[in-house]
Amino acid sequence: MTSVDIGMPVSGLQSVPHLPDEAGKQTKRDFTSDQEVRWCPGCGDYVILAAVQSFLPELGLRRENIVFVSGIGCSSRFPYYLDTYGMHSIHGRAPAIATGLATSRADLSVWVVTGDGDALSIGGNHLIHALRRNVNMTILLFNNQIYGLTKGQYSPTSRVGQVTKSTPAGSVDTPFNPVSLALGAEATFVARAMESDRAELTGILRAAAEHRGTALVEIYQNCPIFNDGAFEVLKDRTQQEARIVRLRSGEAVTVGAEGDRRVLVRKGSGTMKFVAEAEAATGESGAVVVHDPTLDDPSQAFQLSRLDTPEMTHVPMGIFRQVSRPTYDDLVRDQVEAAVSTAGGPATDADLAELLRGRDTWTVG
Amino acid sequence: MSSKSVRTLDRVVIRFAGDSGDGMQLTGDRFTSDTATMGNDLSTLPNFPAEIRAPQGTLPGVSSFQLHFADHDVLTPGDAPDVLVAMNPAALKANLSDLPRGATVIVNTDEFTTRNLAKVGYAQSPLDDGTLDSFHVHPLALTSITVEALAAFDSLSRKEKERAKNMFALGLLSWMYTRPTTGTEAFLTKKFGARPEILAANLAALRAGWNYGETTEDFASSYVVAPAKMPPGTYRNVTGNTALALGLVAAAHRAGLPLVLGSYPITPASDVLHALAALKRHGVTTLQAEDEIAGIGIALGASFGGAIGVTTTSGPGVALKSETIGLAVSLELPLVIVDVQRGGPSTGLPTKTEQADLLQAMFGRNGESPVPIVAPRTPADCFDAAMDAVRIATTYRTPVFLLSDGYLANGSEPWSVPGVEDLPDLHVAFANAPNGTDPKGEPTFHPFLRDEQTLARPWAVPGTPGLEHRIGGIEKADVTGNISYDPDNHDRMTRLRQAKVDGITVPDLEVDDPTGDARVLVLGWGSTYGPIAAATRVVRNAGQAVARAHLGHLNPFPRNLAKVIHDYDRVVVPEMNLGQLALLLRAEFLVDVRSHTSVRGLPFSTVELADVISTTLEELS
């Protein structure tokens, strides 16, 4: 009756009905709804929407078994534009609603679309609890470091000093690092991608969908109206190689272009720093850090997440953590199924009658 | 048998009172179970502090359990105890003012030490200073007699032996009222099966209490209360919370759908979560959420997926869930919100009863956001109310409030167990095919195309091919469900949602007016049923005519309510709030009802309500 062998990776889509091979391939059009997309011109959300619509056919799932649930904010309009089942809910609560849906329906592929304000401010509690429970769902967190739909207030990922409508003298709030937060919340899959890097984003979406448990994908997304250029240094081709740290499982963690490459090493005390390739080769500065997202201990992944700074000097991109742990919804369903099967099958009228009678009854007449 | 006399009584009210650690709730529960199996009708009132263990021997630490049982139908736990068992000075002091002259008081004298007396402000012992002159007092060294009775149990400490004193008291009362102790013996065997010494000691204490009654000269006679005449059937004793949980399970069974509860612990609703968590065998899924908001979010998500989503809470939890209830109104999905009301505002009186969430249930959301309200009247009625809440939720695709309260939740009464085949059929048809055509003439699904009869929209669950659709909290265009900011559409949708709730079928209000010429109607809702019925009985027995009716549906009201109200010269509305139903009635029917209110955390007394009715009758004459 147990559907999860602990320790063995099981696809997050295992119990979701797939299309038969002869049904032919779905296309982006199959996932495009008839609704007019109403984001601002130039919004990064368009790029993400196109990437998701193009990627979903790859999964080969029955469209009717895919559900997108969102909260409130610009990004949360996402479900309206996908021709799947969808719910545009209320501010911050999508992970809770998705938890109820995913737990009661093993046959659905459940996705949550949220933003930095929705997920990390008003919905922070639900986000961390979804992550620790490891409910089988994929959370796409669009991070543009600003409140867009309410027209430009600072968000929990805005930089200290950022001037916005609600912080005319500069924000004094320490921002969240969403990846660090997720790792601290016992997340089993944590990744970061750029909206503009479609190939990388698609690869991460695929891995996230296949992950059994809660997968959190932070997607840097530009708001052209209220926080334009927030990630420009990462998009600028002259700078990005020196700043983006591409995490590749089994490979040394490096930054910079060929010839100017710097390698991440760990000193005996545990601190990490980038050193020149030649220096790293001597081993004197410390051990070269080899990325392994499957490590049970999240410490290294957490340290990598801390390389990121508000100045975006070094920004790791890719999958930080990808480990297997029993999922909440599987365990909950297993308990119910075990109780039902031990009792010999679903409750009959006679079983209900016995329950209603209870133990201490007496008869009149 | 002893040679003592046996006297017959038609009814008795007993109150067990002691320190929070004295096991009074357990003692009361057991006495109730044994009384129920004897066939008496009964009603109970547990009354305990919110603190788990307030300082020992103090007034805030007093916990009590009152039981009213009779050879006829019982409507309330009784205004005043005929018998008070007081395990310490605090229990005596806290309950003394409720005792009528001539009541029997059994006190545990071992606890009447100078120190314990001082804790509750007694300068001298009330056992000696004449305070108790108007009562029949049985001073018993309960603790030391129990310890003595357990002298042979070498392996138990004195403290462990002392702890069995509640079983001694139960044994004594069982003798006094000729109750069998076999049920309690079986209960103890199950509870302490793994600890034979403790089990044997408790059984010995129970027996010692019984024998003490039979042999000591202090108790001159025992009493018999004959079984009540009740309709034929199989009966069990249930608390409101148990009946409510069973009603939800039965409703899901009769709907052929899984039950999913999303809940966050809160007094006095948590027992529903506990009860349902133990019923996985019946396909029940319970999720204890991170907060109240997540609890209802989980339930709503499950409803979207085709389950019967339920959330259980109390008033403060409803406040947190309000936004999600509004979302459910907008999504038009089935959802049951169980509010076991307690004293408010804010944390208020967590373990005491009140009916002050009616207006919160009715109006506590932004926008025009109508939600049907069902309210059970007795502990056993919680079963039927839960089934009816599910019926309304699934038939009309709407969130439904089920307003229980602390008195119903913890109180108990005999319940005639219904046959499964007699329960209403709640099967629901999910949408499974397109119900319209798009502008190109292709078949399409319109998630907000309504049933003409019920105005309910289709319930199309994910996994159904061809019916992919999006729903959300933004206003939707009529029929298509697409986002719409059109002024006329919003006006139409707002009125449609209201009309849907207004059109819900609820049974007509039944009026109890035996003579047919009463000029005063007493109209109540929820748990005031018992006290109101008892009070009207008192007034009628005094030869006066009074009519009585009780609302089980607060939104919409029964169709005949307007006529019923206008049929009487005066309508009295007793409520455990400051007049919330009265406000609704005045607004709806333009009738100046007489509001009688009390917010003491306790049910009305029969005497109090009988006085109100009599006064009203006098004013009219």
Automatic annotation (TrEMBL), chain A:
Keywords: Oxidoreductase. Residues 19-31 have a biased composition (Basic and acidic residues). It comes from the Bacteria. Residues 72-219 form the Thiamine pyrophosphate enzyme TPP-binding domain. Pfam families: TPP_enzyme_C (PF02775). Gene3D superfamilies: 3.40.50.970. Residues 1-31 are annotated as: Disordered. The keyword Signal does not apply. Transmembrane segments: none annotated. This is 2-oxoacid:ferredoxin oxidoreductase subunit beta. It comes from Fodinibacter luteus.
UniProtKB/TrEMBL annotation, chain B:
Coiled coil: none annotated. CDD domains: TPP_PYR_PFOR_IOR-alpha_like (cd07034). Residues 21-209 form the Pyruvate/ketoisovalerate oxidoreductase catalytic domain. InterPro entries: 2-oxoacid/accept_OxRdtase_asu, Pyruvate:ferred/Flavod_OxRd, Pyrv/ketoisovalerate_OxRed_cat, Pyrv_Fd/Flavodoxin_OxRdtase_N, Pyrv_flavodox_OxRed_cen, THDP-binding, Transketo_C/PFOR_II. Pfam families: POR, POR_N. Residues 258-478 form the Pyruvate flavodoxin/ferredoxin oxidoreductase pyrimidine binding domain. Keywords: Oxidoreductase. NCBIfam families: OAFO_sf. This is 2-oxoacid:acceptor oxidoreductase subunit alpha. It comes from Fodinibacter luteus. The lineage of its organism: Bacteria, Bacillati, Actinomycetota, Actinomycetes, Micrococcales.
